[in-house]
Amino acid sequence: MTETAYPKTQPLESPLYGLEARRVSAWFGKHKVLERVTLDMPPGSVTALIGPSGCGKSTFLRILNRMHEMIPGAQLSGEVLLAGQDIYHASQRPQHVRSRIGMVFQKPNPFPTMSIYDNVLSGLRLAGIKVRDKDSLVESCLRRAGLWDEVRSRLSTPGGALSGGQQQRLCIARSLAVSPDVLLMDEPCSALDPTSTRRVEETIAEISSQVTIVIVTHNMQQAQRVSHYCAFFLAGAGEPGGIVESGTTEQLFGDPHDPRTADYVHGRF
Length: 269
Ligand code: ADP
Ligand code: MG
What we know:
This protein is an alpha/beta fold. It is built from ten helices and ten strands. The protein has a six-stranded mixed β-sheet with strand order 6-7-8-3-9-10, sandwiched between helices. A four-stranded antiparallel β-sheet has the order 2-1-4-5, with helices on one face. It binds adenosine-5'-diphosphate and magnesium ion.
């Protein structure tokens, strides 16, 4: 893998919505796993969450779209604001929140026997969205996910027949179909080979002007290539996880303020 950074869209002038986590703590039963996490994820930017396994990155991601509450025994405190509104406010329906804040997982999970075409459209009914021109929506989502040229002649092929990397881009296309404000990605390239990883990174760079992205990655080069902002999570032995340091990606990698961040980004633990 080269160190070349992708051209990053400037986040500042975007009309998109960002996410803000304020003092978020989380428990599984009596086990506290996150301690007062506060993080700003600005509109139209890519924020990378980095840190060792078990420090609460996936839990934090699930809290950002109300998937955490689906786990038995899971609790949380704090606020998550989308466009300034708390997604946990009584007036917010979890289903609606999850359609505005999509999730892409480590293991690509298209519906394996469903056609590529129907896979792209599969989230719409759940989100209560009706579309007049399905063909053009499918094409635009597959184009944005960088998959159109590879699949345009075989849209009725089952999603499960694609390669792992193509399946992951299909999952991104499916997420984009509901026009989310935010896309959460939990180690989206961990199961992919370097070429497929590169294609997914290109897709992230491409869509980051249209959707706010939060990505968990263990790949430090990837964090530097795709993200504008970065947050370093850490958990002491038997302690809940939290953010040691967050800032621009340039600052976190080039001039980390905390020695633990410096050790982590330089691969010293
Ligand atoms: P990371 O993604 O950084 O590896 P996780 O968010 O998966 O970390 O896990 C944080 C902590 O929460 C770990 O101690 C893990 O064992 C615990 N945990 C995660 N999921 C569950 C669950 N469903 N039930 C109980 N404990 C969990
Ligand atoms: Mg994880």
